[in-house]
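hey so u asked for the seq, here:
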Amino acid sequence: MRGEKYKTLTGLDCLVKKEFSVLKGYRVALLANPASVDRKLNHITDLIYEHIQISAIFGPQHGLYGHTQDNMIEWEDFIHPHFKCPVYSLYGEVREPKEFMLHNIDIMVIDLFDVGSRYYTFLWTALLMVKACGNKKIKVLVPDRPNPITGNKIEGPSVNRDFLSFVGLHPLIIRHGLTTGEALKMIQGELNLATDLEVIPVKNWERDMWYDETGLSWVMPSPNMPTLDTAIVYPGGCLIEGTSLSEGRGSTKPFEIIGAPYIDPYIIEKDLKEFRLKGVYFRPLYFQPTFQKYAGKICGGIQIHVTERNLFEPVKTFVAILMAVHKRYEKETLWRHPPYEYEYKKLPFDILSGSQKLREMIDRGESLENIIALWEKDEEKFKERREKYLFYE
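ran it, structure tokens below
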């Protein structure tokens, strides 16, 4: 039976209730970002500092404060003016902690809000930290958080091992339906990592719950993840990053708005209706990005309006968008060239989708049904793999 509505407690809330007793007497470091807050919106750094001296703080992509706007924009280490400890960047050429960064640490607390999509880089920053701490015999504590787009829906292809990258360092499918704690435990188990890894579970959360059913406030985990609506479309929308299309960065609706200067919004909207996709409405529009692709140029495109989120299939939907654009504008170059997320040889779309297969099928003009069949076996295998690592019903 579902727990009382609007009473979900994160792993951090559970630690707060116990006044961080599990950390007392140890040298503690944190891996966190702006969304690392309790249900009262107090940040984990402030909460822990009330009880324990912090030895070091680590931040992922976009920084401890979420201040870097785009992907592949790096930030530098600094000394925190209030906590008087080093703050280390784990995004850039250095994406896993160096040995000197882990000196004088007994416990590493990893509190990163994942949005349920394999290519969101926070999970991989966390994994690299787990591996590094295992090598140094440092205990890792993960206060868990809900998967905001539910834990019972999965979708998309897995990553071929030849295409592992910083948008997928382990073979997960795109929409994996795991919490951060579950994902790390699963990867630890499959890789036989020796790290002492403990997860503090979420309370009063069930797998079919969306984030707005938890009573928890949404804090942007990254600058282009402003709302739950963004997270709902993101498992498909992020594929657009691997193309020449604008994914809506530089607009107020990133990943919900898609387009390019050469697109006629009314024609593409008509083409998309033919797919008869469930739970979504495509609204034709024009927009002008203020930065990133086509900055300052008028783009034609569509806005994705999710009308029934329990029926909406984001990966299928955005593949249909790419199929429609590719067929209608076959003379335009659709696939973006590297570099992308520190991969300099393979095409960005291939590392996002997990192999070259999806791109090649779109190029050949194969049917949406045939393309979906590409990942149905991946989904079945992934369900079996993840079953023993699930904490929540």
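The CA atoms of residues 3 and 204 lie 5 Å apart. Residues 11-215+384-389 form a domain with the Rossmann fold fold (CATH 3.40.50.12170).
lmk if thats what u needed
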